[in-house]
Amino acid sequence: MKFFKFIFSKVFLLQLILAIVLIFVLVFGTLKYLDIMTNHNETIVVPDLSKFELDIVDKKLEEMNLRREVLDSANYNPNYPPYSVLDQVPKPGKTVKENRKIYLTLNPSGYIDVEIPKNLIRKTRRQVEPTLIALGFEIGDIIKKPDIAKGAILELRHKGETIKAGDKLPKTSTIDLVVGDGSL
């Protein structure tokens, strides 16, 4: 009985109303503080940086109060200038807060050099061609040469020069195959 009397007393009701008002003021104040500190609704549209070189990218991002970080170079793309932006995160047109990092993937200066594997000489053309294609090379001319082994690779050439196992050529280089014709 005393409990119900206390709950409906003026002192308890006044304390309860005061606690509810205080909680409301604290929550409202915290939300307003967070809006101000996090720059709520103040965003920047990310520009399209593709095909721009780093010095131009730096100027654009500095004007917009953004930062950049280069992730890595990708595979060479001949449609883009060397050392230009191939990809970016976040994508162009997205909105971000100021001082946000834009992550960039750059186009390298050229194709990577790939090593010519061992044990290609005296293997069949059918074995060698897929190996070279898988490494990123292109097969050029097939030159027939008198040899007892028909279809066997006698040598590899690039721009008329004989190449050996361990030599390095840029990816997508054209390699000519000298093949035995089985005439001896």
Question: How does this structure look, described?
Answer:
The chain has 184 residues and is an alpha+beta fold. The chain has 2 domains: 63 residues, Trypsin Inhibitor V, Chain A, CATH 3.30.10; 68 residues, Trypsin Inhibitor V, Chain A (2-Layer Sandwich). 29% of the residues lie in helices and 28% in strands. The chain has 4 helices and 11 strands. Strands 7-11-8-9 form a 4-stranded mixed sheet, covered by helices on one side. The protein has a 3-stranded mixed sheet with strand order 2-5-3, with helices on one face. The chain has a two-stranded antiparallel ribbon with strand order 1-4. Strand 8 and strand 9 form a beta hairpin. The mean pLDDT is 90.
